[in-house]
Design goal:
By secondary structure, the protein is α+β, with helices and mostly antiparallel strands. It has two domains: about 220 residues, FAD/NAD(P)-binding domain, CATH 3.50.50; about 80 residues. It is built from eleven helices and 21 strands. The strands form five sheets. Strands 6-5-16-17-18-15-19 form a seven-stranded mixed sheet, sandwiched between helices. Strands 10-2-1-14-21-20 form a six-stranded mixed sheet, with helices on both faces. The site of flavin-adenine dinucleotide has 37 residues, from helix 1, strand 3 and helix 8.
Length: about 400
C-alpha cells in the first residue's frame, strides 16, 4: 500500500503534535525547522499557556499525557478583580471523558515543545532547514534556502504567525506591528497556587497564574501605539510599575518585585484567520492558519486538537477529503474563539469609564451564573466528539 509522504514545515506545537498523530497512525512524516533547536523563536512561549481538558484527551490518545502532566499545573479556580474591587470567583470543574477526569492546567510551552520532541522517534526533525516556498506543479514540493527541494504527497504548513507559505499561497501581506504591548514576568513559585487571577479595567489586563510546576507567571497587557522597544528586566519592571500604580493585589505586586525574568513585546493586531485552511495539497495548521487573539488564550490548545483531527483524517482518507473534513470540523471553533477574544479585548483593554462598568458587570454575571463553566463544558464536549470521531 502507498504510504502517504507528508512534509511538515515548522517544529512548533502544531507541527510536533501533527507528527505524533501521524506516527501513531503509521505515517512517518519529515519535519523541517528553520531554527537549530526547538522553542527558540516564538517569544510568546514565555506566556502561560493553558492546556485545557480537551487537548489533554488528544494527548492521552497519543500516549504522551503521562509525560506532560508532571510539567503542568492544575488550575481549579478563577478570580477577577477590577483594579482593587473583587468581582467574583469560580471553581473550574474537571471534564470527564471515558471515565477519566481532565483538569484545566497551565504549562510552560517551551517545556511542552521539548517533551513533544523527546517523545518522537529520532531523525524525524531536520533542523536548520529554512523553507522558502512551495510549488504544486505535478507533486507538491517544498524549496529550501540552499536551493534544494523535496517532493511529497502533502505539505502541512505549521510555520507560525509569520507563515511564508500563507503569504505565498493566500497572497496575504506580511504582518504589521500592532497596538498591544505585553509583558510577561516569571518568578520561582514559593507557595502553592491553583488559581488564575485576572485584574482588568482602566486599559490594563493583568493576570497571575501558576506556570508549569514551579513558577508563578504574570502578564500585563495594554494598548500602545508606539514603536517596538527593547526592554531589559529592569527597564521592563520600571515600565510595569509606572502602569500599575494604584493596584494593590498581593500576589501580583509580590511577583513584580520578585520576577527574575521579564519579557516585553508587541502583539500583532490584524485579521489573522485564513478563510480556507488548505490550498491544493497544502494545508495550514496552528498559527499559520489562525492566530488566536491572546485574550482568548486558546491557541496552543486548539493547535493540539486540530493536529489530532488532521493527522487522524490523513491516515484514513484521501488528502483532499481529509483537508475538507478538517476544515469543516475545526474552522468554526476558531471563528468563535476569535469572535469572543476580539469582543473581550475591546472591553478589557478600554480606558472608557462606561466600558469599565460594563466589563465589571459582565464579570460579576459570569461568575454568579457559572456561564464560563457551561460554555467550556459545551466546547470540550464538541472537541471530544471530534477526537473520538476521527
Ligand atoms: C504574543 C502571543 C501570546 C500568546 N499567548 C498565548 C496564550 O496565552 N495561550 C495560548 O494557548 N496561546 C498563546 N499564543 C498562541 C501560541 O503561542 C501559538 O498558538 C503557538 O505557539 C503556535 O504554535 P505553532 O506551532 O502553530 O507556531 P509556532 O510556535 O510559531 O512555531 C512555528 C515554527 O515554525 C518554524 N518556522 C517558521 N517559518 C519557517 C520556515 N520558513 N521554514 C522552516 N521553519 C519555519 C519556527 O521556527 C517555529 O519553530 C500566543 C501567541 C502570541 C504571538
Amino acid at each position: 500500500m502507498h504510504k502517504l509522504k507528508v512534509s511538515i514545515v515548522g517544529a512548533g506545537v502544531s507541527g510536533l503534535s501533527l507528527a505524533h498523530t501521524l506516527i501513531k497512525n503509521g505515517i512517518t512524516p519529515i519535519v523541517f525547522e528553520r531554527a537549530s533547536a526547538v522553542g527558540t523563536v516564538n517569544e510568546s512561549l514565555m506566556k502561560p499557556h493553558f492546556l485545557l481538558q480537551s487537548s489533554q484527551i488528544a494527548l492521552q490518545k497519543l500516549g504522551i499525557l503521562d509525560r506532560i502532566q508532571p510539567i503542568s499545573q492544575k488550575v481549579n479556580s478563577l478570580t477577577h478583580y477590577s483594579r482593587n474591587k473583587h468581582l467574583g470567583d469560580s471553581t473550574i470543574k474537571p471534564f470527564i471523558d471515558d471515565g477519566k477526569e481532565y483538569y484545566t492546567s497551565t504549562i510552560e510551552s517551551q517545556r511542552l515543545v521539548q517533551t513533544l520532541v523527546d517523545t518522537l522517534p529520532k531523525d524525524i526533525i531536520q533542523y536548520n532547514r529554512l523553507v522558502t516556498g512551495v510549488q504544486q506543479v505535478t507533486k507538491p514540493t517544498v524549496s529550501f534556502n540552499d536551493g534544494s527541494s523535496l517532493e511529497s504527497d502533502v505539505i502541512i504548513a505549521c510555520d507560525g504567525p509569520e507563515s511564508t507559505l500563507r503569504v505565498q499561497l493566500f497572497n496575504t501581506p506580511p504582518l504589521e506591528r500592532s497596538h498591544i504591548r505585553i509583558f510577561a514576568l516569571a518568578a520561582p513559585r514559593t507557595d502553592p497556587l491553583h488559581t488564575v487571577t485576572q485584574i482588568i479595567g482602566d486599559g490594563l489586563n493583568i493576570g497571575v497564574t501558576p506556570y508549569g510546576n514551579d513558577h508563578t507567571l504574570a502578564w500585563v497587557m495594554y494598548l500602545s501605539e508606539g514603536p517596538h522597544q527593547e526592554y531589559t528586566t529592569d527597564t521592563a519592571k520600571q515600565e510595569i510599575k509606572s502602569m500599575i500604580s494604584g493596584i494593590h493585589n498581593k500576589a501580583f505586586n509580590k511577583l513584580v518585585d520578585s520576577a527574575t525574568v521579564v519579557v516585553g513585546y508587541p502583539i500583532m493586531n490584524q485579521q489573522m484567520l485564513n478563510e480556507k485552511w488548505y490550498q491544493g495539497n497544502v494545508a495550514f495548521l496552528g498559527s499559520s492558519a489562525r492566530q488566536s487573539p491572546v485574550n482568548a488564550g486558546l491557541g496552543l490548545d486548539q493547535n493540539i486538537l486540530d493536529a489530532y483531527v488532521l493527522g487522524s483524517l490523513l491516515a484514513k482518507k484521501s488528502p483532499l477529503e481529509a483537508f475538507q473534513e478538517y476544515q469543516n470540523k475545526r474552522l468554526p471553533r476558531a471563528i468563535e474563539i476569535e469572535r469572543v477574544g476580539k469582543y473581550m479585548e475591546g472591553f478589557e483593554l478600554s480606558t472608557s469609564f462606561l466600558k469599565r462598568i460594563a466589563v465589571e458587570n459582565m464579570m460579576k454575571i459570569m461568575h454568579s451564573t457559572g456561564v464560563v463553566q457551561k460554555q467550556s463544558d459545551k466546547m470540550w464536549k464538541q472537541d471530544s466528539e471530534h477526537i473520538h470521531s476521527v
